[in-house]
Design a protein that fits this description.
alpha/beta, Rossmann fold, 6-stranded mixed β-sheet, 4-stranded antiparallel β-sheet, 10 strands
């Protein structure tokens, strides 16, 4: 279980995350939703320990991570993978070498890297693109490369930071289906940051709603869609319905 207790993060005088308490069960698909500037991505960076909180505690199981030294924290970061809205791939490397990159950093042998990369590209459905340069790929194919890279070192947690926001609806559907299949196959914990209601409906079991850096509602996705009292959720649902008209 991932547990946050009173987690706060400020930039200057601005509180991006404010006294957040949150629990994510192992093996779940957990959504974090809110409008732009609500603190979603900052919360995700704290949960993945890319940044440390100013105050509060972050636990993975019985281990408190926010107080670890950099060497010990690196061990835990290797158990996490992240996919981003803008892919964050290396344009100087081809598909195969982008997926291999985190394994090279972790000190894997060339033989093991070759086998692992081949298996991952097969898993995400782009084995035939192994030698391609990134500029030849579609947005959906780039995101599949990014997913393969995020899974390279056998992470226990996969973070998705607005992973489909830059994609068209058809491609979004295929990427969400892939993430769902990977979750079912690998049984990893998936944490999804999004402002898209379709992403929640398709992927998530539970969701936390963030506004002004605070969690204003948390519960099951079905409850969220059927009886949420949150103004934020009602506004997001209204935007979603207006877009579909």
């Amino acid at each position: 279980m991932i547990s946050l207790k009173g987690v706060t993060k400020s930039y200057g005088g601005f509180k991006a995350v404010d006294a957040v308490d949150l629990e994510v069960s192992d093996g779940s698909v957990f959504g974090i939703i809110g409008k732009s500037g609500a603190g979603k991505s900052t919360l995700l960076r704290l949960m993945s320990l890319l940044e440390r909180p100013d105050s509060g505690e972050i636990h993975y199981g019985s281990e408190r991570l926010d107080t670890l030294n950099e060497r010990d924290l690196l061990f835990w970061r290797r158990k996490m993978g992240t996919i981003f809205q803008n892919f964050n791939l290396l344009s100087s490397r081809n598909v195969r070498d982008n997926v291999a990159y985190p394994l090279e950093i972790a000190g894997w042998s060339k033989h093991d890297i070759t086998a692992r990369v081949a298996a991952l590209l097969e898993l995400v459905g782009i084995a035939d693109k192994s030698a391609e340069r990134l500029r030849t790929l579609s947005g959906g194919q780039k995101q599949r490369v990014a997913i393969a890279r995020a899974l390279a070192a056998h992470p226990k947690v996969l973070f998705c930071d607005e992973a489909t926001s830059a994609l068209d609806p058809q491609t979004t559907h295929s990427i969400l289906k892939l993430i769902q299949e990977l979750h079912e196959r690998l049984r990893i914990t998936v944490i999804v940051v999004t402002h898209q209601m379709d992403v929640l409906r398709t992927l998530c079991h539970e969701v936390a709603v963030i506004s002004g850096g605070r969690i204003v509602e948390q519960g099951g996705v079905k409850t969220l869609f059927s009886s949420s009292a949150s103004i934020v959720v009602k506004e997001l649902l209204a935007l979603h319905e207006a877009r579909d008209e």
